[in-house]
Amino acid sequence: MRQRPTARGWALAAAGLVALQVGIGLGSLDLVRIGVLLLALPVVALAVAVAVDAARGRRGLAVRRSVLPDPVHAGEESQVEVEVRATDRAGRARLAGLRFSEQAAVELSGGRALRARVVRRPETASVRYTVRAGRRGRWPLGPLVVTRVDTFGVVRSRATLGDETQVAVWPAVAALPAPSDVLVGEPDRVALGARTPSTDDAHLRDYREGDDLRRVHWRSSARRGSLLVRSDERAGLRPVTVLLDLPVRASAAEWTISLTASMALAMLDAGHPVRLAGAGVAPGGGSGASPFVHARSGPESRAALLDLTIDLEPARSAPEGEAALVDAVRVLGTSQTGGEIVLAALGPLTPGARAGLAHLGDAAQAWAVVREDGRTSGDARDAHATVLALRRAGWRAVQVTTGTDLQTCWLELLGGAR
To answer: Of the CATH numbers 3.10.50.40, 1.10.730.10, 2.40.160.60, 2.60.40.10, which one belongs to the domain with range 57-170?
Structure first.
């Protein structure tokens, strides 16, 4: 806790010093006494402030902070409540004289002072206010700052109470329509009930990452020595891998993350197992793929998928970002991707990176949105060359401008197959 004199305290101390010097010079005992009294008042008030330190030992105040909702999407608001509770009888008296203020990251406060409502009760005080998440990430909130001024108004005490809280912010997403029939294959239409399956539809195939373990045919797997799953209408929808290529520019990276997160949620809501792949997605922040998230978990599945995007960071340079993309594609190439759907948000790629992505079009049903910043003709030309190269490799690809409405990008991607 920090204590310092107020303007009144400094004025009293200065007046006391002057009175003391004048009294000594004139030999006036009364002036000396007045000067000593004026000097003693701030000193005694300072000692009392130290003695009743609100943040010290058992005389401290307990702080509890709640944030709802948490996590929150970028651009949305959360309600924050900070409850301060006195731990003893003396604490109730100190609580009544405290003033509260809260510290928050600029990404939560917008750089403006937080306007809070304080409700006081005999044993507690609650501070309620609203924050608006400005950017994806994890941002600090708190600790609580308490201020007290003594009875005579000569010493101000300032302390922090409680711990810092991390508020997780998901990217902004758009509710995309369910994928059309052009995006799903025959196994998906069977699972969706587009036709009536017969017993001839049922057969066994090798287990692929993302398959539901409940579909494993254990008897056949034991005979063969490797996992086999039923490939019929009960086997579920085909897995989806959403591939991120994050650009250097922060605004373009946030738009890319919002697009890929929205596409991933659209496929998850349609029943597909979904995973993310790209730089920073793999455990430990490496380049690779996350585990599949299954739709059967309901809202927890959406939260688990969005949690993967919170800590994603743009590349420091374009070559570094492209190298991370190629590494992630290489990791995908080592796993069984046959029969998967691959959705990608890519930037303009060099010939080497295009070659690295080409084989995904052979092993999986691959779709890509290729972005361009629209600031230079060269950027648009490179994006167009990337689209043509991917199409020749068996991809379905469309070219969009960074910042385009997410629903427009999605509908353009689906419409590009017609």
So the answer is: 2.60.40.10
